[in-house]
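Why this split exists: single-chain examples teach little about how molecules sit against one another. For that reason, every record in the complexes split bundles all components of an assembly together and asks for one structure covering all of them. Below is a record exactly as it appears in the raw files.
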Amino acid sequence: MLLKTKMSASLLALAFALPATASEIWVSNEKDDTLSVIDIDTLEVVRTIEVGERPRGITFNSDFTRLYICASDSDAVQVMDPETGEILHDLPSGEDPEQFVLHPDDRHLWIANEDDAVTTVVDVETRKVVAQINVGIEPEGMAVSPDGKTVITTSETTNMAHWINTETHEIYANTLVDARPRHAEFVKDGSELWVSSEIGGTITVFDTVDQSEAGKIHFEIQGVHPDLIQPVGFELTPDHKTAFVALGPSNHVAVVNTETLAVEDYILVGRRVWHMAFSPDYSQLFTTNGVSGDVTVIDVASRKPVKTIKVGRFPWGAAVRP
Amino acid sequence: MIRTWCAIGFMACVSVMPADLRAEQIDISIGYLRLETPPRAVLSGLDPIPPARGIDGAELALKDNQTTGGFLGHQYTMDVVSIAPDGDVIAAAQAMFGTHDLVLLDMAAGALLQVVDLPAAQAALVFNVSEKAPALRGADCRANLFHTVPELGIEADALMQVLMEKRWTKLALIEGPSAEDAALAQSYRDAARKFGLKIVSEAKWSFDTDLRRAASREVPLFTQDFKAHDVVLVADAHDDFARYIEHNTWEPRPVAGAVGLVAEAWAPVVEQWGAAQLQSRFEDLTQRDMTAEDYAAWAAVRVIGEAVTRTGSAEPDVLRDYILSDGFELAAFQGRPLSFRTWNGQMRQPIPVVNAQAQVASAPPDGFEHARNPLDTLGLDQMESDCHAFEN
């Protein structure tokens, strides 16, 4: 079943009269201007939805009634009703939004404006920009601490993580990381911050109490030159004991023990793996493979790839909808 | 550094005083010295050389550095001095080295060596951003001279690797009349030999007609005698006649070298690995496309910025040691980190192989391996280099 948003209302009504949908993985296709929706039960694409230009970061609100989409080349964050696939409105986002995080208050989106060296804070209710904060060149990775007090922006060319106080909107620390940071996450109840560096080939682990470097994760795959092992997106199991790290053009996902920071496994996936999302029960992991235009489904228990699903051109972001 | 951003009318303007990583304030003053080349008559006026080619790339990197430096207490400035073709570049260099010890040089090899050999230059760190002559990476190398522009052999090797990968191994070579054309043709011959391709025919370009009108009649005859070949290679260093070869050859063959399939350090069609961001920032700054010359100058200023950021120093010897160390790597929108060859100061970089509309490949392609780094399959390797200035 392939639904385009251009379909008539009656057809849409008919389609959604079908039984309630199963859990889904939503994927943004950067060079198709679409989202692909994968049914987790059948592992098939059940909907393809047209959105703004060059969609990258996507995230749901806390009750999954809204999907936010960074439409980078439309210079907008789009707000979608995921039931109907209808774009409800755009949010002012600043130029070239690439990636964002939704604050735990469910109300403030913190957006990295890649072309502008700015992080923009948008109130999704008033639809207004609350603040813009100057950060380094090409901001990308965004993370929010579990207590909501700190937001991180990483900047790709400046090679820093910027630590922003969410009350004052001021940067209170800047920490250097290896070349071209891409993604950031708070780990272990917010006691650690992890930042991946694509060209540096590492993940830097920070102690969030004093922003000091607490460790570094290195990767090594037999037969792959170190320059091609490029950590980008990563996701953690709910107990935060294991991290899955997408390694870009090495076409592998690393499995990292978060206590020892040792890599336990490398899983072969599609070409230039970007980001990931778990199924709601965390038994499966879905990776977006930009160059091969598909999604690899990994069985989390056995750490084996089990299926490849064709999606649109250059899949980038991924989000789960239970 | 306090900056205020008020781009959107209805939002609150936020003034940010970035927290300093290191308390120490550092001023980094970069010099850019250019000796202009006299204008050269070419057949077509379609692609004029941008007047600030190279300089614009350095300006963009300066802005990148300034943003990063703002978080660290590092203040970057740049002074650009451009000397007319008949001007006194030595006097200008004396003045430049009097106030700057991090200097980019944009000039041909003869003047460049005179400038680098000045006593005033000996304590400085100098970057060659435009001269491709292999000798500067060989017998004429200097310990304080780094090269962010690839030597001729790097680009020729990149092109041959891609042709080899396609199994287009029989080449017919057209060589222009200038000394630079001869050097380019020789780099193609050397690269073809290195990777096992064969130049089956050669011809010297000697036409003095205006090919805008005559190309369709002259070029077929000119290329008619070539032995069976897969590709026509054109050695035209000055963008003079090459554009009239493609689609005018006797045999229906792709053209490569100066036109058609081209290996160069940067081109407007490079868009992977975040390159589109660099392209759009450059276009916003200059309202034109970014060239390979702009990229070399951009890289030099970014190399300085990266080294200052990581070492917390602007001392040339500290920066030189760091740039030559294993720790140095520059993310530069090519999909692999850039670094420097410790035997001759040449920047190690992937080379885009492009046509006018798209990037065809990034050299080295898969399968070209090297014990140290696949990028060292391009250009002068340690064993081949006559450079001794870097031996300590």
